[in-house]
Amino acid sequence: MKKNNAGITIYDISDHLPVFVNLKLHHPTQQKIKPKFRCMKHFDPNTFLTDLSHNLNNVNPEAGEVNTLSDKFVKVFNDTLDKHAPYRYASRKEQRSFNKPWLTKGILTSIAKRNTLYRKQLTTNHPNIIRQYKTYRNKLTHLKEISKQNYYKQAFQKCHHDTKEHGSLSMK
Question: How many domains is the chain partitioned into structurally?
Answer without folding.
Answer: 2
